[in-house]
Fold this protein.
Amino acid sequence: MSLAISTPGTDRRWTLRIRNAGFAIGVVICGVVVLAALFGNALIPHDPFTQNLNNRLIPPFWMDGAQAGHLLGTDQLGRDYLARLVYGARISLLIGLMTTIVSGMIGTTLGTLGGYFGGIVDDVVLFLITTRLSIPIVLVALAVVGLLGSSLTLVICTLGFLLWDRFAVVARSTTMQIRNLDYVAAARCAGASTPRLLFKEILPNIASHLAVVATLEIALAILLEATLSFLGLGVPPPLPSWGLMISEGKSYMFFSAWVIMIPGVTLFVFVLGVNFVGDGLRTWLGAERPR
Amino acid sequence: MVRFILRRAALGLLVALTVMTLAFMLTRLSGDLAISIAGPGATQTDVEIIRKAYGLDRPVYVQYASWIGRAAVGDLGTSFFFKDKVSNLILARMPITMTLGLVGLSLALLISIPLGILAAMREGTWIDRAVTVVTMVGQATPSFWLGLIMMITFGLTLGWLPISGTGSWQHFVMPGFVLAMTATPALTRLTRSGMIEAISSDYIRTARAKGLSRASIIFKHALRNAAIPVVSIAAVQLGFMLGGSIVTETVFALHGVGFLAWESIAKNDFPVVQAVVLVLAIIYICLTMLADILNAILDPRIRAA
């Protein structure tokens, strides 16, 4: 405080500027990934699944031995790395969004009911949250996929059923804060039914908090899918998930580190971008940071 | 106080029982276990023999009751692959996982508490913002990938640390750091918000009015109060870390409980899988219970709730 060089005023302006810059960067990153997922594979002349064993492990453009046709080189089976990376964006986006929809529905339902009704209903919801938190996510997700065989749908369902806790916690506490406010009481006095109260009065007013949680969950789901795929029990090959690409490149990483750097940096930058968007959203909506 | 502890223990027991049931259901997901144990080349007679040998011919509720009854006295069954008691297998590997978890937690606290204090003392400045960005970067880094990069950098290029195995303390540096990074963002944010709350409180104003030195205010008064939630969340984070050690142990080939679980999933060794899920859950339940009780001792307001 005494050592601060600049005055509080300029400091605040600086933080705001950095924060806005973070949000803008996040939006740009997410935009690029979405566009790549939608149109990327139509623009790249290579197919992400076609193998060419004569062209294995061609390095990317900034290294010696690169080929003009393969901007980011090829993998251990001679498949174009850029085409696989861009197709991997589809997998990550799909998993992130679908998982969050599933977990958001479960968590919001439980949290809103617990927060609104209180009493025994709330006790049950709290018990479910406590139980869910005590279950090791990665281990159980691996076990489910290992027992039932890997598929995209199964990964989405498993993660969806495991990641609802934060939605429930935030929905519960925010519902509790507003359930006795005047406008809710007014609607109740006007004779609104309980479902109507929940859907028309409660839900729209906690939506901004849930939106912030959703960004965090999208980021978490994408990271977890990559982890599962890396451990061999996520998205089945030959689908190009970023986690799977890192796993497949692992045997070559000591000789050609770019094999794991390219999908890893992409994954990292995308998740960071989603988090930046969430952080900006939190400031913008004035929602408090969920722990 | 005694009532609080009893109620907390009852909740823990109920959660443990639910996890037990879920672990049982989890391994029954694939339908007929005997077929998956026997493998693809097995004949019908082989499957029948296995079904008898593992008691899978009994009705599901009998199997369930026997699993609950035996697990309650510490008998977690026998592994199909290792042909040994599951409890022995887990006990033999627990020291590695525990060491990893404790190294991870210590590193996480060593990184996050100073960062959190720094951010709180410079609240609203670019330093505070930089710390937030650092936590976001930590949150966005896939831990398995961080592990691989550290292996390339410190193991291969610089040659400072061993890449895999458990021979010496050096083997735990990289895995411990990778695991620590999973808890650092949450702990840093918590230290920061706790310190900000403490700094703006009345007793700090009093201390400042008394003319105490800044170091004394920050470390003796503010930190002591901010530390209460951090200590309890640290216990919870240790539980998460032990549960998440499966990733780190697999990347660095540390033969701990997580690695055992990963091997067993690949081999369809379901007694081991359900036992590891249960054991990790129980450790988490005990740690959170300990944290809650500790919190109640330190802060009497919680006891009433």
